[in-house]
Amino acid sequence: MSTITPEEMAIADENSEYLGVPRLLLMENAGRAVADVAKEALEKAPKDRVVIMAGTGNNGGDGLACARHLAGRANVTVIILGRVEDIKTEEASKNWQIIERMVFDVRYALAPDAQSLMNLKSIIEGADVIIDAIFGTGIKSRIREPFSSAIDIINSSKGFKIAVDIPSGLNPLTGDVHDKCVKADITVTLHKMKPGLINRKEMTGSIIIAPIGMPPKAEVIAGPGDLRYSMKPRNIFSKKGDFGRLLIVGGSKEYSGAPTLAALAAIRTGIDISIIAAPKSVADVIRSFSPNLIVRKLRDDYITSKDLPELKSLAERCTSVIVGPGIGLEEETKVAILSFMKEVGKDRPMLVDADALKALSEDPTCLKNYPAVITPHAGEFEIVTHNKITPPDKLEDRMKQVRGEAKKLGLTILLKAHEDIISDGNHVKVNLTGNPGMTVGGTGDVLSGIVATFMAWGVEPFRAACAAAFVSGSAGDFAVKDRGYHIMATDVIEKIHEVMKRFDTPPFIK
User: Fold this and answer.
1) What pLDDT sits at residue 506?
2) pLDDT for 261-304, tens place per residue?
3) How far lies 396's CA from each of 62, 315, 390, 391, in Å?
4) Do domains 6-218 and 224-230+245-501 have the same CATH topology?
5) Which residue in 33, 223, 235, 248 has the fewest CB atoms around it within 10 Å?
6) Do the strands 245-249 and 206-210 form a parallel or antiparallel pair, or are they unpaired?
7) DSSP reduced 3-state for 341
């Protein structure tokens, strides 16, 4: 049976909006699905009294939409648990505004506290059908009032109990009950089965999986949902270092731009500190590019094993590492970099790109089960995996191949192409943002900086890679709107904020 976690569901929900299916429509479809089940239950009920217990989140919004669909069939009372001003989303708020105007069709009552709720106890206990639309996610601490009393009253009532998506109090991921939980007769779970519902029949009752019109593609694309769930909230107490320290090991006589672009992209994405460790032949050149850069000069003209103690020491002070941009193909460098990756990658999120991929090809599974992302293009993919890549016009086959190779290597692969493919061996997604202008040199280094920033924030590698692919491609699309296909990698960097600022927490204040 196919399942979806709460986080995956929330991401797909937002990606649906991106694909043109509004979340308000998904909520409408959810409400209708629950109402259809309630109508069937009413066929066997002595009367037609329905009470909907609605929280202030989207689960409550589903309940409010359900109330409208039941209005012509039943005697409906909606009880809002909490304060109306605490309704969390635009979609739930819209449904509440409609209920307020349906004074002749739907009764409603407010229960901001336990005492208010106790005054409504007889209404709940007298219902033929009780719809639990209180919580849509698991509870990790003691359930506070009035929600705790609401669950007790629901469980002690004789009415037929229907849970919306999950019984309130049940963890939809693990199936654990931390404090207490609604004991439903039927659970109408939305879109797909949630892992925590399996084998919890004493809480869920019968389970109905209700389609809500979510496009299947919403689960497969890398989109704004992936970005939202990769953002790290800021507050007034935030200080330097809270948003990550990045080490970039790169640069050589021939290549000074690659590590610089990765560092600048990371800074624009939101990393606090970006350190480039570069050979002495190029360190001063890199330092001259921008006052935003911190550059550590290594001892030789290219990276060698003599640099390993310093590189390891720097890595210990950082929360993620990029290896590869511009390091060159000196044999000593490949040996040193492979040793560095094996030793540091086990406990530091690491992104491997460019010439470091050639070093990795000599021991492709050395990062197995480490928090690592590699970002090859098609040619580099073949070098690392020692397998010919599936042609780009066979997307599904290519996705299967990337997933299979990611599983074998035990890491996340972000295959760069006109349709990026991201997989950790278990999940696979496709990024559809980006454009032909991004064939310009350096855009891969920009992508590296974005991925590494998300990993430095504690985002797991697969999610970080999905979010970064979306940000990088979208920033490139913004750049092309301004300049046509005549863009540079630095133009992409300067559009990263356009993609990310609407996801800032707290919201950006003009």
Assistant:
1) 72
2) 999 999 999 999 999 999 999 999 999 999 999 999 999 999 99
3) 34, 38, 10, 10
4) no
5) 235
6) unpaired
7) helix
DSSP single-letter state for residue 23: H
Domain ranges of the chain: 6-218, 224-230+245-501
Residue pair 50/70 in contact by the 8 Å Cβ criterion: yes
DSSP classification of residue 233: P
Q: Which segments within 205-304 are labelled E, that is strand?
A: 206-210, 245-249, 273-278, 294-297
The first and second tokens of residue 317, run together, are 């002070």
341-377 pLDDT, tens digit per residue, is 999 999 999 999 999 999 999 999 999 999 999 999 9
Tokens of 423: 């997989």
Whether residue 475 contacts residue 268, with contact meaning beta carbons closer than 8 Å, is answered with no
Task: Determine whether 202 is exposed, middle or buried from the number of CB atoms within 10 Å of its CB (0-12, 13-18, 19+).
Answer: exposed
Q: Which of 86, 180, 70 is nearest to 131 (CA)?
A: 70
Note the Cα 312 to chain centre separation in Å: 30
Q: Which CATH number fits domain 224-230+245-501: 3.90.930.1, 2.160.20.80, 3.40.1190.20, 3.40.80.10?
A: 3.40.1190.20
Range 7-11, long-range pairs (CB < 8 A, 24+ positions): 7/229, 8/219, 9/190, 9/191, 9/192, 9/194, 10/225, 10/229, 11/223, 11/225, 11/226, 11/228, 11/229
According to the model, what pLDDT value does residue 510 have? Answer: 46
Residue 67, pLDDT above cutoff 90? yes
pTM of the model: 0.95
- Three-state DSSP at 132 gives strand
Using CA atoms, how far apart are residues 230 and 467, in angstroms rounded to an integer?
Answer: 7
Single-letter amino acid, residue 175: G
Token match 């029949």: residue? 201
Residue-by-residue DSSP string for 31-65: HHHHHHHHHHHHTTSSS-EEEEEE-SSHHHHHHHH
CA 113, CA 131: separation in Å to the nearest integer? 19
